[in-house]
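Following up on my earlier message about zinc ion. Here are the inputs again, as you asked, copied directly from the submission form:
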Amino acid sequence: MAPTTLIAPSILASDFARLGEEVEAIDRAGADWIHLDVMDGHFVPNITFGPAVIAALRGRTTKPFDVHLMIAPADPYLAAFAEAGADTITVHPEAGPHLHRSLQTIKALGKKAGVALNPATPIDVLAHILDLADLILVMSVNPGFGGQRFVPGSVEKVKAVRDMIGARDILIEVDGGINAENAGALIRAGADVLVAGSSVFKGGDYARNIAALRGGAAAGRTARGRR
Ligand code: DX5
Ligand code: ZN
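Thanks, got it. Here's what our run produced:
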C-alpha cells in the first residue's frame, strides 16, 4: 500500500495543441504521476501518440511518466518507450502472446512493469506473473476513450486484486471514469493510484479538481484504515 494516494492525470483529456504547457500545468496543480495513454487504432479503436511525443514532453516535468500501452503488439516498442522517458510501462495481457516475457523485457529495461486488466479480463491472468509486476491497472471503463462512464463492478475487482497481491510490493491503479464521488470507494477497496482525465481537466482549474479527488480519496483512506 502506498503511504498516500497518488493522483495520475491522463493527458488524453488535455489540449493536444498545447501538450507541453498542459503537462507543466498538471505538474504545478499537484499531479503525482503523468498518465500517458498510447493507442494504436488496432488494439483499441482510437489513435493517440507514441514515443516521440513522450520524449518531447519528458523535459517539461520531473514527475514520473506512467505509460499505458493500448497497442498490439507491444513488445517491439517497449525499448522505444523506455528510451522516451517512461518510468512505468503497463501492458495489456491480450496485446501479446507472452505476458511474462513482456514484463521481463520491461524490467530488463530498468522500468517498473504494469499489467492492465480490461473490465472483462479475469484477475486469474495475474496468478503467475505477480513476482514481475510493480503495478496492476484495473480498467474501470473499456479502453480507448476518455469521458466514459465508470463500470461499477470495478470496486469489487480492486478488492479481489488487493486480496490476491497480499503483502507484495505492488501498487493498484484504477483508470476510467474516476471522479471525487467514486474515488473514496476505490481507495477503500485497496487502490493506491487514481488515473483521471475528464475530472482533472474539466473547467480548467486543475489544482481544484486534483484537490477534490484527493478529498474523496482521503475519506476512503480513513474508512480503509478502520476495515
Ligand atoms: C482510457 C484511458 C484512460 C482515460 C481516462 O482508455 O486509459 O486513461 O484517459 O479518462 P477519463 O478519466 O475521462 O475516463
Ligand atoms: Zn490509461
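One observation from looking it over: Residues 10, 12-13, 35, 37, 68, 141, 143-144, 146-148, 175-178, 195-199 surround D-xylitol-5-phosphate (ligand 1) (CB under 6 Å). Hope that helps, and feel free to reply on this thread.
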